[in-house]
Amino acid sequence: MASHDNIFSTPIAKLGDFTFDERVAEVFPDMIQRSVPGYSNIISAIGMLAERFAKPHSKVYDLGCSLGAATLSMRRHIDQEGCEIIAIDNSAAMVERCRLLVNAYRSETPVQVIEADIRHVDIQDASVVVLNFTLQFLSPDDRLALLEKIYAGLRPGGILILSEKYIFEDERANELLIDLHLDFKRANGYSELEISQKRSAIENVMRPDSVETHKQRFNEIGFSSSEVWFQCFNFGSMFAIK
């Protein structure tokens, strides 16, 4: 059973930037379920999309895999000869725990878990690439280059699945969706102190884009099709097909 997330439950004199360290890795399943509306639906559907798009003798990438929820969902669904999943994260604490979780389940589809910076990893012969709440933690200056590298490494007809927190250009709509997300966190037991402290810690490291910005990038890079396939409040997931 996942440990309860109480990282921000007491006053912290000096709040640093949010990092995916050992403390976060330990409580991550609880944190993500209580913080990201629709997370379980997204994870389940990533497996279904991978089942549809994964090709024999191709690679499937989970970039920013954290504890491997998307990786495990895809492995449960993929049944293609010679297909390999490569899960990558730059957090040693996440990678260590991800390997334990991956090794706990036997499967015909092999999984390689790598500790690395996804900006410096080669994407080759991919039929599926997943960025599940990962791109938003990269510097905005690095996002286009990574997406271009993913596009270049995708087979024709391959899919990129991109889950993100969104901002909205309509200010009134944006504020309403932010408020609904805060209500979601309150309903899941987070106190006002926890909500406030986490927001302060994360605001310098997570800079969301709008749906329009994502679509514009996809078009600029050359993806043939892209759309939002899931949204709950200001969180959602998109696909882009080469």
From TrEMBL:
It catalyses: prephenate + S-adenosyl-L-methionine = carboxy-S-adenosyl-L-methionine + 3-phenylpyruvate + H2O. GO terms for biological process: methylation; tRNA wobble uridine modification. The keyword Repeat does not apply. GO terms for molecular function: carboxyl- or carbamoyltransferase activity; methyltransferase activity; S-adenosyl-L-methionine binding. Its EC number is 2.1.3.-. It holds the Pfam family Methyltransf_25. Gene3D superfamilies: Vaccinia Virus protein VP39. Keywords: Methyltransferase, S-adenosyl-L-methionine, Transferase. Residues 60-158 form the Methyltransferase domain. It comes from the Bacteria. S-adenosyl-L-methionine binds at residues 39, 64-66, 89-90, 117-118, 132, 199. Belongs to the class I-like SAM-binding methyltransferase superfamily. Cx-SAM synthase family. Catalyzes the conversion of S-adenosyl-L-methionine (SAM) to carboxy-S-adenosyl-L-methionine (Cx-SAM). Homodimer. This is Carboxy-S-adenosyl-L-methionine synthase.
